[in-house]
Write the structure tokens for this entry.
Amino acid sequence: MDPDEERRVRLENWAAMATGWERMREEREKIAAPVTEWLVRELAPQPGDTVLELASGQGDVGFEIAPVIGESGRLISSDFSPAMIEIAGRRGAELGLTNVEHRILDAERIELEDDSVDGVLCRWGYMLMPDPAAALAETRRVLRSGGRLAFSVWSSGDRNPWISVAGRILVAHGYMPPPEPGEPGMFVLGDEELLRGLVENAGFETVRIEDVPVHNDYPSVDEYVRRSSEMGGMFSRAWTEASDDEQEAMKEEMQGAFAPYAVDGGYELPGVALCAVAS
Ligand SMILES: C[S@@+](CC[C@H](N)C(=O)[O-])C[C@H]1O[C@@H](n2cnc3c(N)ncnc32)[C@H](O)[C@@H]1O
């Protein structure tokens, strides 16, 4: 697929997911809270700072720091998806934030001046970009000297059964292609050493990476399927392609595969994010 066509498809996919993401905000933010807290703490924004959030989705991480940077500071809440930005704008207004500028920006070619921001945030964005090296180099370019980047990606699939177990079942049943090495995807930056190299090659001098565990609790496999269909573009596309019988067969397999994580009549599926701070 040529890059323009690929970008159009990615934008369409994110637009299709935006409403489900909005409905799932509260649940999503509860699960993501340990990662959000880590990013905010390590970015350590100060009153008056200009902070750029890349691939901000519906803006939730940046909105946590908007009150800290205050009226003399500025949050540039950005994403390449107009659908996500529209929802982020609505949410920012709902929260009464007045120091936020919502912008459509592609992280792989950021339309901002060199050395123009004090900090950059990006939660679960870089691994979904076709050229994360370019996005990290662009991030370095717009960050002033001494400024910090705080971001997260997912660790490897085997440390994230909350998503990889169902993914493997969908692949085995032919509803999802097996992940191609190097293609954008949830786990492509999940190797800590690879990630460190990528960040250093982008021109960052110091990088610290930590594991941050997250827990996804589901009362049943049905609820797992419902939530994943709301949030996950690939999951929902794959799931809706399957017949009722195939869906039942896959749910049974999920029940077996989730058994090691059973607690109190439901499941507690673990996950790990790699959180990084670089300057
Ligand atoms: C998994 S979501 C994360 C959203 C948000 N950061 C969060 O944690 O809730 C990934 C986001 O990356 C955005 N995205 C993907 N590629 C991008 C790019 N090249 N430039 C900017 N945003 C991009 C998508 O539109 C989507 O909103």
Q: What stands out?
A: The chain has one domain: 3-157+180-215+271-278. The radius of gyration is 19 Å. The mean pLDDT is 95.
